[in-house]
Amino acid sequence: MKVLFLNGPNLNLLGQREPEIYGSTTLADIESIVKRRGADQGIDVEFRQSNSEGELVDIIQSAKGRADVIVFNPAGYTHTSVALRDCIAATGVPTIEIHISNVHAREGFRRHSLLAPVCRGQISGFGVGSYLLGLEAANIVNATK
Ligand code: CA2
To answer: Is 18 in the pocket of ligand 1 (CB under 6 A)?
Structure first.
């Protein structure tokens, strides 16, 4: 199984700003933790990050036929992006939405995801653990495809 972990805008800043919300682990740290766990399970993990909505669309489109599952932290685009929603629906690669923070315990605008209806499920609020839970969810989704 191949799993694409895709990260949206500003997640390249993880570990450098707002550690009280997002923790002190960097995205590079998360990548190595998830890749190690994936390797233990024989899962090929690819990690990508982009600050650009269009580039995220391009990456999702090119995942078709290349990745079995996408684990996606769309960051701020969660709450705004019709383009990413259309792309996930159109390409049909099963996608799991993840968040580091509990988006339902924060500002009202974060409670609404434009992407959740076209994703297989949502994981939110477990810090770096949301990425490891995303890997578990990818296993379940792949087994029931
Ligand atoms: O909790 C999450 O994972 C979020 O996707 C993070 C997004 C936020 O807009 C979502 O509502 C929830 C923000 C990502 C920005 O990451 C930063 C990291 C360090 C410092 C500042 C921002």
So the answer is: yes
